[in-house]
Amino acid sequence: MFNDKQIFYMILVTGATGHFGNAVIEFLLKKGVPASNISALARDSAKAEALKAKGVTIKIGDYDNYSALMQAFKGVDQLLLVSGSDLEKRGKQHENVVKAAVEAGVKHIYYTSIDRKSDNAEASPIALVMKTHLDTERHIKSSGMAYTLLRNNIYADMIPMFLGEQVANTGVFFPAGEGKVAFATRENMAEATAAVLASREHQNKELVFSNTDSISFGDIAAMLSDTLGTKIPYVNPTAEDFAQALSSAGVPAPIVTMSVEWAEAFKQGTFSQTSTDLEKLLGRKPTTVKEYLSGVYSS
Ligand SMILES: NC(=O)c1ccc[n+]([C@@H]2O[C@H](COP(=O)([O-])OP(=O)(O)OC[C@H]3O[C@@H](n4cnc5c(N)ncnc54)[C@H](OP(=O)(O)O)[C@@H]3O)[C@@H](O)[C@H]2O)c1
Fold first, then answer.
1. Containing domain of residue 141, as a range?
2. Is the pLDDT of residue 4 over 50?
3. What is the CB < 6 Å shell around ligand 1?
């Protein structure tokens, strides 16, 4: 919590109309950062009405539009760059954001990067995802601004997407083998990010946001079995059988490919490492996957 003597800097959060950016702003407000010290970057002002009503300043800009970004970043001290959602475009988009931030005089940039075991992006099953994050990290580190890299593990919120809507009938049908992932909730990561921004510490540091345990998809099946009160088996199909089943169910080809690639990354243990950074910033244990899943599947 903060007192009246605390000097607040102007903080700008990008991706503010999305789940993560919006949650970060909510946690900043909860921590006592005045709304007048928070700006939100949005592409569409209509989507930012609720934030505006709370007193947050809305700046309009797209990661593709360099001059709009420059305008939006004027007077900003701390900028949180929430990674973009267009995989093909976001390498260049993030470069735009970093350059515009330098030109506008931003002092400290924070970036929602990705956790990983190796920096060899090309060898990763999710090569483009890794490459865009690693390229952005490099741009940030060579920008001259103070930086904080927030290496996010996988959101627990993604698990239902990997399991599919029919999980109660199909079992956990996912080709991740014994691979473990240190899933943590998006909300926990957003809260910790707000804590980092509000503290104005962690200059030129990399923090790892993961749970304190990593779990396999077999563990997820056991957790779901407990929650639903019925046996949900873990089926570990081959990548080919998995792709075939998804295609037969009408899943579009690019989504099938992406799902296979993510499963392979999980199988290889890309996200199995754990850290206590999240726990320390939250001041408590992160939400467990079991708690998260029981919230989603018991309702
Ligand atoms: N660690 C994980 O497991 C995980 C999982 C999924 C995603 N991610 C990454 O984390 C980011 C945040 O996650 P999320 O759940 O908050 O995603 P989200 O709800 O889809 O939000 C993405 C935000 O980025 C904004 N955005 C996208 N392209 C933009 C552009 N060209 N210019 C300006 N703003 C742009 C969106 O604006 P609009 O509202 O206008 O679309 C939205 O506000 C994602 O974008 C993705 O890079 C991480």
1. 11-152
2. no
3. 15, 17-21, 43-44, 47, 62-64, 82-86, 93, 112, 152, 154-155, 158, 186
